Amino acid sequence: MPVVQVTLTEGRSPETIRTMISAVTQAVVDAGVAPKANVRVLVNEIPTEHFAAGDTTIAERHAAAADNESKEGRA
Predict the structure, then answer these.
(1) What is the pTM of this model?
(2) Strands (DSSP E) along 27-75, which ranges?
């Protein structure tokens, strides 16, 4: 029984996550790993404040991008 773990930052709609679960399940089936009924998919969502790259959290990157967009809009 394969168990596939997917870790994402928060922010996707339930519909998007559901579509991804179906696609991941089908990929495992198509690869011949296991029948659909035996595939398990676990989705872990991490708050954007809890994920960092280069000492900058995703939340900080989003805030900086929004700030830059608002400054460009005023220029």
Answers:
(1) 0.81
(2) 40-46, 52-53, 56-57
